[in-house]
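quick one, two chains, predict together pls
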Amino acid sequence: MYFQYTPEQKDLIGSIADFARKELNEDIEMRDHEGQFSRSGWEKCAEMQLMALPFPEEFGGCGLDFLTTVITLEALAMGCRDGGLVHAIATQLLCGIQILHFGSEDQKKQFLPGICSGGIIAAQAITEPDSGSDAMAMKTRARRVNGEWELNGSKTFITNAPIADLAIIFAVTDDQRPALGRVSAFLVEMDLEGVSRSRPLGKLGLRTLQNGEINMKDCKVPGTSILGNEGQGALIFNESMEWERSLLPAVQIGALDRIIKTCVDYAKERKAFGQSIGQFQAVSHPIAQMKVDLELGRLALYRAAGMKGAGKRATMEASVAKLFITETFKKACLDAVQILGGYGYSTEYGLERDLRDSVAGTIYSGTSEMQRNIIAKMLGL
Amino acid sequence: MTTKDTIRTFIVSELAGEEGTEIKDSDQLIDAGIIDSMGIIALLGFLETEFAIQIDSDELLPENLGTVQAISDLVDRKLRA
């Protein structure tokens, strides 16, 4: 396999990384400390059409293929040191992709233009206080009432929830149906009566990303709010996870590229015992390993993304990419902090923030343990 | 081997977990404890590879994937198309 970027992809990488470095890093330390979402950063990214990348032009999108979308998100993460903002944009893309693939024409017309322009902020709500990895054990219920659906239940840790205008909410619609058809997905506007949201949750990392609860009490949504078909929720969920695991690790790949540059520059400049510390294998080998992990992870991700873009199933490939990239990224962040010593541990280089941000990657979108389960299952074990 | 037999053989040998599991055409695969939700994902991958078909978003429906009969009908429809 010989992979090379197209001229368009090369241009995108350069221009988006440059844009991010110049426009998105202001006050990042303060915003990280305060857990503050960058609304201005969101709007700048919207102006750059970063939320419109993979969507058809008829809905206000750029019409790019999925692999190019992944490469562009990676470039954003190279330049942008606000991991929370990059994650918020990735979530927006993933919600739009679900609507594009499973939504009715009316739903696409209603929501995709706003998602592309950034005017609608989207969230996906699956996790509940008592069900994480076992997502289909959810307690949220939806029942038909006079042609509408009435939702009751709570979702938690939901990315973008405190700032969202729209959420894709998964709920059990019929306990009596066979297990595969019990859950449905709904498009729920957040200003509806019966919807309430918590304040953003405090977190170890990704502190600028707004995660929170969505509570529904007798929340009535139109009968046309179902995404896809009634009972299709579990299958939509599976499909959405595949897209997610083929996109989100681009955030870690881009950040790792940036961290390697930081480490190399520091290792060349910093002197100890009469020479650059990069001359010591104790320093150069961990950086070399980061480069190996970057290149392998990047290829794994592009393979999964390329397959998804071609309409292929990529269950195994997406899980391999997600598992490898998030685990090696966490280790790389820890090594980077160690290499920079006191400067790594302090806030000056932002590496301590990268390290805190890295922990979430092995938990969200299916923990590393779940990825290993999926890979084992695909191997017939 | 018929489409149905091919599917049944894969489920028994790769997903069911117990050798000799008997699966009727109409058994609800998840409800009967024959496979779990992850098994459905593996099954989709198998179907697309084995029969060289692509199952589209609007075909990812419980009624198409709940039983051996339903899965076999879906595959046959796709092969005829």
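The two ends of chain A are 28 Å apart (CA to CA).
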